[in-house]
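Marked as duplicate of an earlier ticket. Keeping the data here for the record.
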Amino acid sequence: MTIYVFDMDGTLTPPRKPMEADFATRFSSWLAENTAFIATGSDISKVKEQVSEPILDKFSGVYCAMGNDLWHQGAFLYHKDFTPEPELLADLEMLRQNSQYPYTFYPNYIEKRTGMLNFSILGRDCPYEERERYNQWDSQNQERLKVSQYLSSRYPQYDFVLGGSISIDIVKKGCGKGQIAEHLRQSYPQETIMFFGDKIFKGGNDYELAQALRQLSNTVVVQVDGPEHVWSILSNKVAQAA
């Protein structure tokens, strides 16, 4: 038996967009026959914006906020939180004010979630086209990487990882996505665990979970570049099992 674990943004859905209808139809049928979890940095409200509740209810669990929340069919299974230091919040304000990004900034740039902060210099309340423009600019200028390195040197008790296409996820060490690996292994001691993520590379927000799973036996980690890539792998496994 295989336990499937999926990142959300860039894996099951386009970044910060709803699951596409054609993929949702195929994936919903597949979910009905398999045991699967979501592992995301988003909170449950954002998950519901992107994945419809009938599909969410077919998952065995939804790990939100880097695994600091766990939901199942609308029920809250556990919750871990923290309070960020005022000095950290002040540094985030300073970094945004000193950004070299030459275009418009938007609200909601420090978002408190369970057990984590999500920091976006651009601001999460931006139009989708502005998200794409910042992501292209950041790819050339490496602003998020430089900010992460600076904050890591000042706050070694935290992990700072690139989240989605415009933000940085900030969690206490030991409270990032990696914690999901051990929780799953405790629940499924013998089964194969297969994880799909679009950012399993170092510095990406799937890297910690990928590395934690690689430390365990009987696990598989798969780098993907979107829902259709995920589906090509899942459908191939179905064909092989037939």
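See parent ticket for discussion. The first strand starts at residue 2 and ends at 6.
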